[in-house]
Amino acid sequence: MRLGYACINMTMGKKVSTNRAMIKKTFESKGLDYVSELALKNSQDIIKILEWNRLNGIYFFRLSSAVIPWGDHIDLTQLKDYKQIKAELKKAGDFAKYHNMRINSHPGPFCVLTSPNESVVTNTIADLELHGKIFDMMGLSKTTYNNINIHCNGVYGDKQSAMDRFITNFQRCSNSVKKRLTIENDDKGSMYSVKDLMYIHQKTGIPIVFDYHHHQFCTGDLSEEQALKLAATTWPKGIRQEVHYSESKRMHENNLKEKPQAHSDYIISLPNTYELDLDVMVEAKAKELALYIGRWQTWHNGHEWLISQQLDKGKNVWVAIRDVPQDEKNPKSAHQVLMDLSKEKFFIDNSDRIMISIIPDIESVNYGRGVGYEVINHIPPSNVEMISGTKIREGYMDSNGDVIEYSVNA
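Above: the chain sequence. Below: its structure as tokens.
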């Protein structure tokens, strides 16, 4: 399983972005020169994000659809920086290919090949063609390894007729789009399940991207495993199946006002792959995390120092609690530890940047050449290193590492 994230690198901040865009009013007032300026900055930052991804062991990335704002309305060759934009895109594509990074895209909900409205279809094809042109300029493969993924986005009272329109309109696209296009299952019962999308696949050969979260709301009477493995049959040999994974914002925040389909900021578990080799696109707002694994019994200033090493670098943190058997050294269950940590002032003060979850009691952390995450050993100062959770539990030391002295009155 290989994990990826979508579009925005929160750790690098707003100054590094491939998502600089503009509203229509700005486009009409500032024109092509401003489009060119933003497109060049976006293109130059792609390789910066990819280099960060490489250093952090991330080899799957979704490129923003806003790299060239309003690019589907213009002749790209008329941009004043066109040659430089093209060179920057090629540089990023070469970097991705050299390091075996998978790049893909996901045009938005206004891409509707099922629409009965010709103007909507025309605009959809123009948008898809822009994505294809950008990938061509990057030198990416004309295969679903570098896929352009969309939803069907409309039933219009007759799902069968809508799918037939999709198939007809798909044939109007260039090979740059057709050879890269994938389709994804929806999150509403009236829309398209994996089972529904098999009809389009059988007519066109388009692979299906399985979305775990969406499947909960549109099952097609299939279990998660059945739907995932049915989608797997649609992928060409030699190209790893892509899936999407997210979790419910309503459940994470215990907020019934949130739609159950809404994505959470973090994920607290990984999907069941059912023994398939998958590329997993994590669809969550807070995407890059520094992972800390421990028992965390009992929380003390040494733990706080350790986690602060990454928080102080601007990283978001995942604190993983090992689900160890309860014994003399581990008197609390993992669930009790989770509840205790969530009440600590350190976690409350950093609640927007720290995720806590329970993981199985692992025995080792392993990674392979070219796909591993960085493993960092933080060496604490002596006054931090000597703090002992065991001594704190036994009452001989406080959480600062100070020895507790007792006096016996005669």
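Residues 289 and 316 are 5 Å apart (CA to CA).
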